[in-house]
Amino acid sequence: MVRLTSxxxxxxxxxxxxxxxxxxxxxxKGDANAGSIMVKLNTLDGRARAFQRSYDAExxxxxxxxxxxxxxxxxxxxxxxxxxxxxxxxxxxxxxxxRHLLDEPGLSE
Length: 109
What we know:
Elements: H1 6-19, E1 24-28, E2 37-42, E3 47-55, E4 61-70, H2 71-84, E5 89-94
Parallel strand pairs: 2-5
Antiparallel strand pairs: 1-5, 2-3, 3-4
């Protein structure tokens, strides 16, 4: 299976969000080819949730929660991750209904 570059995946994800009228933007640009990707969901009520890609027991790519709680705490968690690895991409999604689309087909690639 061909793996997508990080930059290509982020651009495709932003397009899918835009088509669903969900505001999103890149807050940290990582390595274009192989940078890890994290998604912060800001529900605009002072709370947020951060997701990162991982693998399940069968080796399938999945999204898992890295941090959840007050927006400032989630932001601090992402800043720590970025401090460990400058190649990380961070995409912030803003949706009061909590939509992030990561559970849709094709976004675990």
